[in-house]
Amino acid sequence: MRSVYWRASQTAYAVTAAPAAAPPPAIRAKDLIKPTRPGFHTVGRMLLMSTLKDRLRADLTTSMKARDELRSGTLRMILTSITNAEVAGKVARELTDEDVIDVLSSEAKKRREAAVAFEEGGRPESAAKERAEAGVIAEYLPEQLGPEEIAEIVGKVVADLNAAGEGPKAMGRVMGLVQPQVKGRADGAAVAAEVRRQLG
Predict the structure, then answer these.
(1) Domains in the chain, CATH or no CATH each
(2) Does residue 79 contact residue 56 with C-beta atoms inside 8 Å?
(3) Cα 79 to the center of its chain, rounded Å
(4) Per-residue pLDDT at 185
(5) pTM beyond 0.90
(6) Partners of 94 in the β-ladder
(7) Tens of pLDDT along 132-177?
(8) Exposed/middle/buried for 130, CB within 10 Å: 0-12, 13-18, 19+?
(9) Alpha-carbon torsion 132, 137, 143, 147, what sign?
(10) How far apart are CA 167 and CA 189, in angstroms?
(11) Residue 151 has what pLDDT?
């Protein structure tokens, strides 16, 4: 009996005397959320998309509840265009905010061009609808550059390249440096026209 008690006491001592395991290192927020590329963040193993598409979806829901047919119809078409862009390649992908802005810019341009065509065709009501839709889209685009701001950006690039007076042959070089600066903030046709003007 004594040996049984002795073994039991030794076992209890071993259990209580064993060093406690070190606690796992604290998980910091910055370890959970890390930027990967513009528009994306990782949380653990999850990939979070940009917020612009989420904003469009939320605004669509709000406009439908408010029975705002113009806004809800426009946003529904924009989201369809975004979805089409996501599955257009060989592999489906999620669009970043920058990609979504490209889609928005393209859709806004289509509506501006359609408005002009309707005006020239004697259909003012259709032209007004296209312009109204373009106005909704513009709310989700970066602030647009004015003619003077475009001219300033183009002028700086032309000066940096010493391309003044070179004419159409310098068009590609100048546009290649101008476009990243005006992307989503200016109509491409207006930018190209300003480049041509400054190149002479």
Answers:
(1) 52-138 (1.10.1510.10), 147-199 (1.10.10.410)
(2) yes
(3) 13
(4) 87
(5) no
(6) none
(7) 999 999 999 988 899 999 999 999 999 999 998 888 999 999 999 9
(8) buried
(9) negative
(10) 17
(11) 94
Q: Which residue from 92, 81, 56 is spatially nearest to 71, judged by alpha carbons?
A: 56
Average pLDDT, the chain: 81
Residue type for position 105: S
Q: What Cα–Cα distance (Å) separates residue 60 from each residue in 14, 23, 188?
A: 66, 47, 28
Residue 149 in tokens: 């701001």
Least confident interval from 41-55, 70-84, 102-116, 143-157: 41-55
Residue written as token pair 């949380």: 43
Q: Which residues contact 187 (CB under 8 A, 6 or more apart)?
A: 109, 112
Dihedral over Cα of 131, 132, 138, 143: its sign: positive
What the block records as the tokens of 154 is: 């183009």
